[in-house]
Specification:
Elements (H helix, E strand, L loop, with lengths): L4 H5 L7 H15 L9 H15 L2 H14 L18 H19 L2 H44 L5 H21 L1
Helix pairs in contact: 2-3, 2-6, 3-5, 6-7
Length: 181
């Protein structure tokens, strides 16, 4: 049967990339073999990494979702699924194999080194959120500047300040966008 990566990470198939990352961080730090002494922790940790690496990659997730929806359709749960262990898509098989090997590698490195790798994921996520916010602010100021300048242009005789203010917003928006990109 194909693995239910969503169940492994404890998320829904509609989960966002941030939800996938969050679930991965929590589970990976909890089940790293240096930390978790439960029987089967090593294999569970490898599966967690495999699930994360497939679901966090847009192309791999799309292909996985196609097979997932076919295999787990009509409410069939993973215990009842009798689908053979390989994916139909050869690329997905290759990605899953690579993800499994990387999970094995992560399971065999010291926890401190692994925790440092997870910390980099957290930093990357924070940077992406910050850049998105800065981009949205720049876009807002740029659009606001255009509309304010146009309004000021049509009312130039009564309020020339609006035109100048609009141009300033536009310039500020462009500067912020250039720094965000």
């Amino acid at each position: 049967m194909i693995p239910d990566y969503y169940k492994i990470l404890g998320i829904s198939p509609a989960a966002t990339q941030n939800e996938i990352k969050k679930a991965y961080r929590i589970l990976a730090l909890k089940y790293h073999p240096d930390v978790c002494k439960e029987a089967g922790a090593h294999e569970r940790f490898v599966k967690i990494n495999e699930a994360y690496l497939i679901l966090s990659d847009e192309k791999a997730r799309k292909k996985y979702d196609e097979e997932y929806s076919r295999v787990y359709a009509d409410g069939v749960n993973s215990e009842e699924n009798t689908y053979p262990g390989k994916f139909d898509d050869p690329d997905l098989n290759d990605w899953a194999q690579t993800a499994h090997e990387q999970g094995e590698h992560y399971a065999n490195i010291r926890f401190a080194e692994f925790a440092s790798l997870v910390k980099q994921i957290v930093i990357e996520t924070g940077n992406q959120l910050r850049n998105s916010f800065v981009y949205m602010v720049g876009l807002f100021l740029g659009v606001q500047g255009i509309f304010t300048a146009l309004y000021g242009l049509f009312h130039l005789t009564t309020n020339p300040f609006l035109f100048v203010l609009g141009l300033m917003f536009r310039v500020l928006g462009v500067v912020i966008l250039k720094k965000a990109i």
